[in-house]
Amino acid sequence: MESSITLTVTGMICAACVAHVEKALKNLSGVTQAKVNLATGRVVVEYDSQKTAVSDMVKAITDVGFQVFERADAQSELDREQKAREEEIRKQRRNMWLTWPLGLVAMIGTMRHMWGLDKIIPAFMADNYFLMVITTPVIVFGGWQFFVHSWRGLRRGVTDMNLLYATGIGASYLIAVINTLWPEAGFGGRHATFYEAAALLTAFIILGRYLEALTRGRTSEAIRKLMSLKPKVARVIRDDRELELPADEVDIGDLIIVRPGESIPVDGTVTDGYSAVDESMITGESIPVEKKEGDGVIGGTINKTGTFKFKATKVGKDTALAQIISLVETAQASKAPIQKLADFVAGHFIMGVHILSLIVFFFWFFVGYDIWFMPESRFLLSTGMLGAIGVFGFSMLLSLTVLVISCPCALGLATPSAMMAGSGKGAENGILFKGAEAIETTAKLDTIIFDKTGTLTRGEPSVTDVSPAGEWNPDDLLHLAAVAEKNSEHPLGEAIVNGAREKGFEVEDADSFEAIPGHGIAAQVKGRQLLLGNRRLMQTRNIDFTGHLAKVEYLESMGKTVMFMAVDGSFAGLIAVADTLKESSVEAIRHLRYTGIRVGMLTGDNRRTAEAIASQAGIDYVVAEVLPEDKADEIIRLQQQGHKVAMVGDGINDAPALAQADVGIAIGGGTDVAKETGDIILIRGDLRDVVSAIEVGRATMNKVKQNLWWAFGYNLLGIPIAAGILYPFTGWLVSPQLAGLFMALSSFSVTMNTLTLRGFVPTLKKQYAA
Amino acid sequence: MSSESRIARISAAWYLAVSGGLALIFFFITTFNNYPAVARYGGAIWVFILTMIITMPIVIPLVKKKYE
């Protein structure tokens, strides 16, 4: 039976670890998919529960040297992650207090022979035995963690970043000790001990670990912010008494009272009262939304002005907030296709670097040293000359600098850290990406197809035109029509009543009302006989409207439904009703077209109505009168032309097209089917969020690309320089400690670059804020 | 002997043999070019360490696969 489980793995530090865990899981029979996210430590495993058990997975991961837990709820996971991060920060801070002062003392001691510093720095500080004494605790206490981790891994046949650190630190320390105890051994003698290299290398690596621990947690801030919205208490009315209960104990159907300034504890429907609610934290909408009887409220939002009561409709895991948290979590745990290359490279990186290190050693030992070595040459940013260093010392230094400078951490973090920040940024703006793939594909979109009804339009008719005849004025005509239609259950009648109310008219009861099936209604209002309905109603009652036919045709050509009205046997005018565009639609489409995206509309509606709506919205590509299954075919046709297509829809009939599209964008207020099928959910149902979703996708992918360029570029540039490729031409050599600094800065800079995404604001939101 | 320690022993035999072999080859080659003793011995040790690090993650999973 196909099952899925999310595990939390601790102890992974680089992309090589990711590869080991994925490989260990995929080697189990029954595991069909294993995706590891380095940034979150989350592992999503799809497996056949009849062939393998969770305990097998736990054993497989433990066998390759990592700790594993079954994933708890989001809050516990955050707590555990935070605790582990704080522990790591504490540990590395403690190590820094040891390694940095001693490393700096070692550096000052080593510099005594330079620039006349011998007048300031006491002689004992430059003594090799003194340097050995102060460097040894740095290696033993600060660097020990790397030796232990790498040995544990090696015993299981696993290599990771710790091994690079351990070989780098160990070898440079060993050379220094040999040069101190046996100066004639040929490693450069007493003046080439490089204690400061071993000490500062350790200090820099620890600094890198410290900075990484500080910054890594910040990329999961979106989840933390969402979790903090969860209200703790609810005022529930039970047996006519107001009780303050934990929000988790609210049941469906409970009546809850919310006062100004309080958080709404769960989702529900207002039963009594009126207020304005700040929903910005969930929907990104900055203006408070008015709530009255019958309106829905979302748990986690904040009541601003009035007091109201509501009935709980969704509690616990079913609330919108809980589902948003779950979606963002899933998105952050998923893996983007662009990550595959980085994963492949990083998975083979450590071994590749060791092979390269061996080749570098052979090259400089057998060829390079004799041809190019110059005793007066020095390390970059250092004044000390290499002097009498022998062939072995020189070759080994270059060989170990290659190990130290290489950094798969940056490669491993480049994509997942940006994806986490991107999906968090989306959630902040009311856009839920269901996975990293959705973000990646959104950035590539060139065509967006909208469903019409309920997506571009409001999905319900409203009065668009009132065209009176004779001496009637539009307001009187609409008011009278609304009174006549007050008891009608027909959607067109409701549109007229709503239209009159929106204009501020009080809609009284009619004296009498009669529905005429297929024609309209007849009513008596304030002693006057009213007829309101279609053309046939007028014809059967012999009411002449021929003078208004041109107007009728014009309105119908705009896709509107025209209603005819007669009062006391005479034609009184026309009322046109249509499904109107949402305010956001025109602006969204204008922006999409401005950014070079082709915009189209698919609808099952008739061509005339479709074209009328399309022209109002500014859409030139329209496919009308299509069946739901044909909508998917239309998407396929566009894809076959090489387009990357997104479908935006809200209904069950849109589901096939949403599934077929490269990115399905479901409107938050739409059906559950649409939301389940879509790759992106717009919480507000505001089409301007389609523009924002594309901008967030593009900004995220820009960050991913920048990070990957940096990570690959750093390694591609740094490793050859460390291997001495420039030495024959420029005499430049990178010291192990400088390599350590570069390595620490590379993964730090990737994380910092990702964090700049926190300042990103979608264009339209920026415009409204301005 | 448990299967795990058997695998560890067989693996160790393989990667130590390969690493030792390459270190010996290095040592043998360096006899022809008047390299100082420290370079020959130190170099052989460095070659041994790096080769062991390279071969361990290759050999252990292969042996595991064969004997498990």
Structure description:
- The complex is a heterodimer of chains A (770) and B (68).
- The model of chain A has no long low-confidence stretch (mean pLDDT 82).
- The two termini of chain A are 54 Å apart.
- Chain A contains 29 helices and 26 strands.
- Chain A has 770 residues and is of the alpha+beta class.
- In chain A, helix 25 links the parallel strand 25 (663-667) and strand 26 (680-682).
- The relative contact order of chain A is 0.10.
- With 68 residues, chain B is mainly α.
- In chain B, helix 1 (3-29) packs antiparallel against helix 2.
- Chain B is rod-shaped and about 50 Å long.
- The two termini of chain B are 14 Å apart.
- The model of chain B has no long low-confidence stretch (mean pLDDT 86).
- The A-B interface holds A 154-159, 163, 167, 171, 185-187, 351, 354-355, 357-358, 361, 365-366, 390-392, 395-396, 399 and B 8, 11, 29, 35-36, 38-39, 42-43, 46-47, 49-51, 53-54, 56-61, 64.
Short summary of the structure?
By secondary structure, chain A is α+β, with helices and mostly antiparallel strands.
What is the mean pLDDT of chain B? 86
Q: Which sheet architecture does the biggest sheet of chain A show?
A: 7 strands, mixed
What does the average pLDDT of chain A come to? 82
Order of helices and strands of chain B: HH
What descriptors fit this protein?
heterodimer; A: alpha+beta; 7-stranded mixed sheet; 6-stranded antiparallel sheet; 26 strands; 51% helix; elongated; B: 2 helices
